[in-house]
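hey team, just a heads up i'm posting the complex here instead of the shared drive bc the drive is being weird again. everything in one block, sequence lines first with there labels, then the predicted structure for the whole assembly after. its two chains so it's a bit long, scroll down
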Amino acid sequence: MLDYLPIAVLIILATGLASLVVILGHLFGPKRYIETKMMPYESGVNPYGPGTRRMTVRYYMVAVLFILFDIEVIFFLPWAVVLRDFIDHSLGLFALIEMFVFIVILLVGYAYAWKKGALEWE
Amino acid sequence: MSESIDLTMTLALLPEILLLVLAGLVLTFDLIWSEDRKRSLGWLTAGGLAVTLVVSMIFARPGEQAIFVWGGMLRYDWLGFTFQMLFLFGAALTALLAMDVKELGSRGEFYILMLVSTIGMSLMVSSADLIMLYLAIETTSIPMYVLAGFFKQDNKSTEAGFKYLLFGAMTSAIMLYGFSLLFGYAGTTDIYNLAFAIQAGAIETIPLMGSLFLVLVGFSFKISAVPFHFWAPDVYEGAPTPIAGFLSTASKAAGFGVLIRFFMAAFPTISTEWSNIIAIVAVATMTLGNFLAITQSNIKRMLAYSSIAHAGYILVGVATATPLGMTSVVFYLIIYLVTNLAAFGIVFTFWRTERSDEIKSYDGFSRRAPGLGLAMMVAFLSLAGMPPFGGFIAKVLVFAAAVNADMVWLAVIGVLNSIIGLYYYLIVLKHVYLYRTDADEKPVPVAVPARIALIILTFGIVLLGVAFAPWFHWSTTAASILF
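-- predicted structure starts here --
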């Protein structure tokens, strides 16, 4: 268990220092509450409307579609990296077909989303 | 990449590959077919699953020796294969049962989600690696969350889906923490190498027992064992009935398949310890399930508690940690799948016309639908463990395994529990056979696919109880791979 002592020390130091800084700032810093300071993002885009209003369900469609294509790209990348190794082991054709199978599966999902009207905003 | 892809590796994945193709087909036909033809997707799904089952049985039977495929991610052996065939069978019959209710059977999504979940289960029971296992469990669970909440307009169904999601997410997070601890201490994600690391003393006793508990939480949720059973009654009640049936049989079987593989493979050195823990969980599970089932007035809730109780009986087999015990677990799950699918199928057929799940509304059921009443009697007596039905043999085996492993007290508690169980099953049969109502002449129609499914299941229950040697032999082959 002694191996973990440095981690414990680190945790105590980190929390201690962080709380110390916040407490010191709270005790000695000047407090001026102005409207800009109360915003969620002080130097960002001005928010409008309440933060808890209802969102239209269409955004979820977009999010799901985003995942579909995002995952596609994520899987392309490592595949492209190791493709050379596959070719060296004379498995190049296999790797290529595998990727086509993957794309076909995604395409079916894409066609499904399209046909079901997930791409239409209205 | 030293190993090349050979035929064995492809054969090991054959059921999953065919399932994926089938899911793609269903998805495509869902787009092409018009609304009133969509019902036929059920035939497509059930037929495709039957083809997958037959083709896998002919071509993809594993050899006597278990082998690791796909870089040690999967173990290609009889245990996984047996469970895979069980899931295929269960999914096919669920599709047949659900076909003729418009809001379920005419929606392509229902079949697709079920197929994807079945792929997950198939991978679950054959995975030999922590990462693969976790991925497979999530592949199984996520479609199930959606399916449990499939009736969007029905508050109960939505509640069921949400409750299942929250419980599932929570327990799988805890389980994942257990996995990460095991990996952290042992330095390997391979379930079979974990055992060597533990044997070599890589993990001290306290962290080892701790991670065992954390992993057990995740599995207990899947098999609805006490104290992680709270979701079961609410989810079964709210979810569409065929889904509840699928959850209580295939999903539970997958949980048990993983439980016995994981515990036998990774923790053989501390089998006395976990055997005691599981024995306690088994006693709590069956006692609580049986006692709470007595007071239920909703038949789906009653079946939910009864399925908790059955999880307890099966855990008795797990607790023995002997070859006979593991055989009894596999055998029990085969019989339980057939029996409980029949029970849920009848409940669903009744709900289709009556839109009621109250036990009271079953009054005079045997006069309104003699065939269904008979099937119900067979299914419920089998659940209660009456000869000559399958449930009897299953219970005998489980308790025999407990006696053989010097756990007589466990067998005694199990037998006492079966007697309590008999009571509430007979209460339902009393409503079905003895009570009369004014609507005595109103028949309960059964759609053709559901009729086929129920006939298969009812004959299956009797067949499993009368000619049990081949199934027992099969279970023995499957279980022997664990040792």
